[in-house]
Amino acid sequence: MLRRARFYTVLHLCGFLIIIYSLSMLVPALMGLLYGESDLYAFLKTFAGAFSCGLLLWGGTSRFRGDLKTRDGFLVVVLFWCVFSSVSALPFWFDQRLQLSVTDALFEGISGITTTGASILDNIDDQPKSILYYRAQLNFLGGLGIIVLAIAILPMLGIGGAKLYQGELPGPLKEERLTPRLADTAKHLWMIYSGLALAGTLAFRLAGMDWFDALCHSLSTVSLGGFSTHGDSLGYYHSDAIECVAGVFSILAAVNFALYFVVLRRRSLLPILRDAEFRFFALIVTLVVGYTCFSLYHSGLFNGREALVHGFFQAVSVMTDNGLGSAGFPDWSQDTVLLLFGASFFGGCVGSTCGGIKALRFLILRRQSSHEIRQLIHPGAVYVAKVGGRAISERVIKSVWGLFFLYIFFTCLFTWALVVAGNDVMTAFGTVAACINNMGIGYGATAAGFGGLNDVSKWLMCAAMLFGRLEIFPLIVVFSRTFWRY
Q1: How many distinct helices (H) and strands (E) make up the chain?
Q2: Which UniProt keywords apply (predicted)?
Q3: Does 224 carry a binding-site annotation?
Q4: Considering only CA atoms, which of 475, 465, 485, 482 is closest in space to residue 142?
């Protein structure tokens, strides 16, 4: 009876989250009205269908109440992201102007909501404003997670949201909160996130974009989503100022948002500058950007100024898994392209909107590996891995090693599967790197777009994008026999 009550509680939460998400469909519809579009049927139909289904699910289970356990939180997160992705695809499928198949619509929807930014559209410049804005909105909502937004409202349902929060936020230290109350934590995260988006919009506008493009690119940049309003991405503008703005905000979005909260509370930048993970992230960014700029200049592809601007922006964009592009990337020298695709696995800081494995995990692995080397030299010594003067527990270290193994394993598995599906090795690797890291820039046959992939490859990459967005463990947990056994 208790298990049944918890199951209905999970369905109740899913219904509520679907209702909340359905309301977001009204915003691109209003954007279409603002620009004089007459065909808004796709958004209104999606809103009506999702709202009705969510309301039925929420109302039909409203009499059930149960405490969520950790396993239930994972189930809600996985279930909702699957439903979330399906609902996100509906406007692309319903819109007759796009003429997309179910597979293509689902790929575009999942790519947007997982902040991957890999697109199957080949005529982006000609798309309606409502569709262009909707793609940017998908990036924005997926960036920090619609579930974190909903947690701020969950207390009114009489159900704690801590287990949802644990399943949604990235990183090995998921139990940490900014404030004692979880609802306040979610609100602060979204205030900081929205403030960064507003600042990005103003910065892009001052750099030369019109207001619509500035808004869309800001939503895509602070979410590190990568959808652009132009097929040539930022290369459309041929503007050093715009690329610099995008590069700077990509770095800002890759910083742990918890640090921004502390900075605002203390009115000092020292918490960021003293943070061990940020310093490690800044070091790797500096090395990657430095080599990229040097390579572009040394190869003769660009002069000194162009090499600095394009090298800074593109290296940061790929490494933080933003995925906006310019200057003909990835048709650069192979050593530079390989470095940047490898850096996309690094990502940014935990608690940010980036994809990849995250800087803190690499820092922990580096510290632990150093201790293992010392342990071999001095078997009787006792070493404790620390980050920022804080000892890292064995549970966290095991979790990091487990995630690292699974990440590499599924990267290899998806790459092999794409080769089996008929793609060459370089295309397969670049495409998987783009999708599992939620980075969005392909290589080989997908360098110019993902529309050329066959349907089997697209379905595989839909799975890869979800694996990357949820950091593998929630999906593995829900699909394990142990999860359903007890």
Answers
A1: 22, 2
A2: Cell inner membrane, Cell membrane, Ion transport, Membrane, Metal-binding, Potassium, Potassium transport, Transmembrane, Transmembrane helix, Transport
A3: yes
A4: 465
Spacing of C-alpha 170 from chain mean position: 10
| Residue 380 known to bind ligand | no
Tens-digit pLDDT profile for residues 279-316 = 999 999 999 999 999 999 999 999 999 999 999 999 99
pLDDT at 157: 45
- The three-class DSSP label of residue 167 is helix
How many CB atoms are located within 10 Å of the residue 303 CB? 10
- pLDDT of 3 over the 80 cut: no
Assess contact for 432 and 450: CB atoms under 8 A.
no
At 148-160, the pLDDT tens digits run: 655 554 444 444 4
Calpha distance 126→110 (Å, rounded): 22
Q: Supply the DSSP string of 400-443, one letter for each residue.
A: HHHHHHHHHHHHHHHHHHHHHTT--HHHHHHHHHHHHTT-----
User: Is 221 marked as a binding-site residue?
Assistant: no
| Sequential DSSP letters for 242-310 | HHHHHHHHHHHHTS-HHHHHHHHHHT-SHHHHT-HHHHHHHHHHHHHHHHHHHHHHHTTSS-HHHHHHH
Is 115 marked within a binding site? yes
Round to the nearest angstrom and report the end-to-end CA distance of the chain: 13
User: CA-to-CA distance for 230 and 283, rounded, in angstroms?
Assistant: 32
pTM reported for the whole predicted model? 0.90
103 is known to lie in a ligand binding site? no
225 has binding-site annotation: yes
Q: How far is CA 400 from CA 81, 174, 372, in A?
A: 23, 12, 15
The count of other CB atoms within 10 Å of the CB of residue 300 is 8
